[in-house]
Structure to design on (263 residues):
């Protein structure tokens, strides 16, 4: 059955690999294309094949949730920089982006807006200041440097996921120089972006959100949607092929940080 996605909706689907019965992974493999099964054979690292099957199943079942298509029927393509999209479908296919880290896989979906998502497993970053100086824009590196030592890793990962979400939404990899744009993280307001060269992009054209998941993961979402327009973000925890739970609508418009672990 089709579930419409409104023009202002952004659905953020979250799959916790620890909630997967191992027997399901074989069923997920049955949804995959020959190419995806070949990719799985090349993944030699521990947990790689499982995560690959679960990620493919998440993308396929999530897209089918909106269109009613059989999850096996989706044909994917990648652009020149590796960003996946739908190659062809019977109707209009939503836009999506995937990210995985640790035991979490996430899939962000919009009706037609460019979208990027990033998740990072929370960890201490011992060289946060050096890494920020090397890879971030000057204003971001200053925030990390000025943070009390106990908060530096957290600030670093917030910038990191936001920057990655924007790069992934643009879909052109490191053609977007990481030091060429920066985020403001005002207390109680959504993150906003700035550009060192004003001609490189329009800061008013983008909306961002960041989340903490279960106190273990930092997530960021980038959507090319004018800041003047509403945006309804829903969080959906799911296990592919095991039904679709009701969404938790994230309550803030404009977007704010939302600590999912507190719900
Ligand atoms: C390709 C790239 C975006 C992947 O990022 P990552 O953090 O290693 O991995 P994630 O789990 O977040 O994302 C991987 C998924 O993104 C998608 N993806 C791959 N290339 C992509 C691209 N160019 N644009 C958007 N999405 C892409 C794929 O679905 C992939 O998962 P899959 O292989 O299972 O299908 C990343 O390697 C990259 O180019 N980064 C450049 C920016 C950078 O170095 N940022 C550092 C932070 S400041």
């Amino acid at each position: 059955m089709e579930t419409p996605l409104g023009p202002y909706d952004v659905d953020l689907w979250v799959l916790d690999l620890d909630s997967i019965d191992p027997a399901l992974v074989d069923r997920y493999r049955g949804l995959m294309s020959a190419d995806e099964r070949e990719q799985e054979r090349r993944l030699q690292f521990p947990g790689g094949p499982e995560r690959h099957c679960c990620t493919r199943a998440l993308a396929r079942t999530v897209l089918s949730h909106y269109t009613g298509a059989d999850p096996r029927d989706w044909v994917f393509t990648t652009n020149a920089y590796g960003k996946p999209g739908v190659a062809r479908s019977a109707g209009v296919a939503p836009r999506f982006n995937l990210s995985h880290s640790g035991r979490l896989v996430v899939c962000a979906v919009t009706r037609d807006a460019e979208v990027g998502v990033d998740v990072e497993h929370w960890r201490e970053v011992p060289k946060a200041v050096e890494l920020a100086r090397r890879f971030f824009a000057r204003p971001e590196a200053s925030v990390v440097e000025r943070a009390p030592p106990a908060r530096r890793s957290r600030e670093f990962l917030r910038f990191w996921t936001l920057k990655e979400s924007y790069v992934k939404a643009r879909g052109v990899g490191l053609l977007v120089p990481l030091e060429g744009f920066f985020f403001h993280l005002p207390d109680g307001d959504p993150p906003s972006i700035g550009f060192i060269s004003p001609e490189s992009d329009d800061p008013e054209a983008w909306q961002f959100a960041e989340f903490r998941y279960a106190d273990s993961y930092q997530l960021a979402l980038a959507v090319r949607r004018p800041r003047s327009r509403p945006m309804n973000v829903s969080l959906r925890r799911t296990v592919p092929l095991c039904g679709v739970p009701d969404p938790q609508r994230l309550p803030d418009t404009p977007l704010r940080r939302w600590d999912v672990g507190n719900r």
Q: What stands out?
A: The pocket of coenzyme A is lined by residues 55, 81-84, 97-100, 118, 135, 160, 163-164, 167-168, 171, 173-174, 178 (CB under 6 Å). Helices lie at 22-29, 34-42, 48-67, 128-135, 138-146, 152-170.
